Each structure stands twice: as C-alpha cells, then as structure tokens.
Amino acid sequence: MKQEARDATGAPATLWDRTRQLASQEILETALRLFTEQGYDETPISQIAREAGVSQRTLFRYFGTKEDLLGNDQHRFGQVLADTVGAQPADVGVWEALRAGFSAALALHDSREQALKRFRLLHTTASLRAGYLQKQLRFQEELLPLVEARMGTTAGRADPRARAVIATACACLDAASMAWVVNDGQGDIMDLYDECVAAVRG
C-alpha cells in the first residue's frame, strides 16, 4: 500500500507541500543529468532552469546555490551523521558508532544511481571537491565532542586521539567512495569502508 506523504512534523503533507516536493525533485534530476552530461562548471543555471521548466528566480527559491543542486544536502548529512553517532548506546565503540553515522548519512541518497552520479561529480570536479573537503572538516569538528566523550577524554586536556580517529574514519569513507566510483558503483560503499578501516587498524 502506498504510504501517505508527510511533512517534517509528521503531519500529512498538503497539496502545496507535495507540489513543491515534485518541483524540487524535477529541478534536481535535471541538474544532475546536465552536470553528468556536460560537467558541473560548464552547466549554467539558466540552462537548468529552462530545461526544468521554471524561472531562475523559482530555482533559487528552492536552492540557494549551484552546489545545492547536486541534491545532497550537506547540512542534513552532517546533522544525521552527528545525531546517529550521538544516539549509539554507551557500550558501542567509537569506530562502530562512526560507522553507524556514515551508514545513516549515506542512506539519505534517493537511489544508488543518484549517489553514484553525485560522488562521481564530487571526485572529478575540482571546485566541488574543495567544497566537499571543507565541509568534511566542519563535520569532524561537530563530531569531536561526541567522540571525545565516547573515548573518555579528560576534560580540559588536549588529546589528539579523538581527532585522529575521526580524521581516519573520514579518510576511509573518502577512499571507499572514490573506489566505488572507479568501480562504476559495483559493490557497497560501506563494505569498501570496512576494508579501508581494517587496513588502517592493522
């Protein structure tokens, strides 16, 4: 049975909400197709708007920047990552907690095909790559107090262990997603991530 659409509060979505969601999805799919066919830097906003059947003003009401048109809400990614890590039981180890967070964040992708297109663009477009790495550093800072608490770091003491674990886990995710792209989406990113973690943990 088809599940009724709901808004962020859990209430049934209105016709207006559903219309906005459909329009947003159409713009995202158009942008992702054009980015894949032509390249991110080579695709103007005006073309995306025209082919999606909306004005540029309407497009920017849905998406604040061109980067947002990749359809991967980085703020939401970071929020789900931190919330999931923080929600893990106290007896769950730090590596397991981070893995759960990455898995939950990756599940935000609408489909495997879209995830592959997005990661391919992120890994092959210099401007997107730079922005992605900058956001990753911010995510690491947001995770730091959660990981320090899980590792029992002494308050007020500069302890590099938590930063080292987070940076290594993020590097493993980056390596896994890059390998996944090179392998044209074969296998599972989290399986590749597990292989990377096993390699660095020895």
- The CATH top-level class label of the largest domain: Mainly Alpha
Number of strands: 0
Specify Rg, calculated over alpha carbons.
19 Å
CATH-assigned homologous superfamily of the largest domain = Tetracycline Repressor, domain 2
> What's the number of structural domains?
2
The share of residues in extended strands comes to: under 5%
User: Which structural class best describes the helix and strand composition?
Assistant: mainly alpha
Main pleated sheet: none
Measured distance between first and last alpha carbons: 47 Å
> Under the CATH scheme, which architecture of the largest domain would be assigned?
Orthogonal Bundle
Mean pLDDT: 87
Task: Please report the number of helical segments.
Answer: 9
Portion of residues within helices: 55-70%
User: Unreliable stretches, pLDDT < 50, 5 or more residues?
Assistant: 1-5
**What's the order of the H and E elements?**
HHHHHHHHH
Short description:
The protein is an all-alpha fold and 202 residues long. The chain is built from nine helices and no strands. It folds into two domains: 55 residues, Orthogonal Bundle (Arc Repressor Mutant, subunit A); 130 residues, Tetracycline Repressor, domain 2 (Orthogonal Bundle).
Protein architecture, described:
The chain has 202 residues and is mainly α. It has two domains: 15-69, Homeodomain-like (Arc Repressor Mutant, subunit A), CATH 1.10.10; 72-201, Orthogonal Bundle (Tetracycline Repressor, domain 2), CATH 1.10.357. Helix content is 69%, strand content 0%. It has nine helices and no strands. The longest helix has 26 residues, at 126-151. It is globular and about 55 Å long. The relative contact order is 0.09.
